[in-house]
Write a structure and sequence with these properties.
The protein is of the alpha/beta class. It is built from 13 helices and 9 strands. The protein has 2 domains: 217 residues, Alpha-Beta Complex (Spore Coat Polysaccharide Biosynthesis Protein SpsA, Chain A); 82 residues, no CATH class. Strands 1, 2, 3, 4, 5, 6, 7, 8 and 9 form a 9-stranded mixed beta sheet that branches. It starts with 11 loop residues before the first strand and ends in a 24-residue tail after the last helix. GO terms for molecular function: transferase activity. Keywords: Transferase.
Length: 337
Amino acid sequence: MSTLATTRVPDVSIVIAAYNAADTIERAIDSALAQINVTVEVIVADDCSSDQTRERVLSINDPRVQLIALDKNKGPGGARNAAIAAAKGRWIAVLDSDDVFKPMRLFQMLERAKETDAQIVVDNLDVIDLDNNGRTMFLEEALAQRAQIDLASFIRSNILFRAEHNFGYMKPVFERDFLCSKGLQFDESLRIGEDYLLLASALAEGGRCAIVPTAGYVYYVRAGSISRVLHLHHVDAMLAADSGFLQRYPLQGSALAAQKKRTASLHEAHAFISLINSLKARSISGALKAALTNPRALRHLRMPIMMRVKRLLKGRTRTKTSASLTPGGTHAPLHKG
């Protein structure tokens, strides 16, 4: 492990935000270093871990690995920004500290970028659940039929409470010069949804986003991940970030229509969490009051509410302090950090 970047400009800078990732960080780094037919550097930004994460990174004897030890916890967005600021590669790839790349992933993505003159490339994902069962997130045939992802399609796929998976789960590779020239970085105020906002901003800036339909990224579902629990303050932060996005990028047509639906879905999520918090506090009156403040959410969430009311009346609901929410069918545009 070296604290100095290599002198040769690598094809890809792989940035990893790590927080208490001692159990998985070496696996993630090994997969990054094992990329075939591309040159890489791996920059790990340790976000004030209290475990052995830093020591595990420092133990890796490879000059392509660089550690940035943050002196203040900045969250996933801030840690990634710190790593990107130190990057020298032509492309930027984000890898979560508990996930892995398949060996040919980056080569395939860079080849796709050359073929399409794209500044952004995304690919499919293999998802490994808590029982270690794997599945591919998107149908390859469906992705293969798409030439690219445009802004309207991306926003539309990130509307909460949709039945299908959304493109917000994809892990883009960005051309570094494009990010720098547009002044794009992760929003450090967001602990959930920072990935979505960066890609949406890149598309709004005119970036072309090509697709590799095969799975090159392996996404591990982990118990306790911040992406699996959505609180009211997370929704408030996403609404504020989306408002700022609209101020920077006045949308029109299909993109604006999609954004209006996304905003409505965030308000529905806010109402849903308020309802669940009230139900878990065993307050039917509080739940009804929360529901009536957003009739649209009440209509949309009628069945989940009634199921919880029935459980409450039967005395089977246990009191907890916060609500869990995974809107969007079985998954939501939320991300690990």
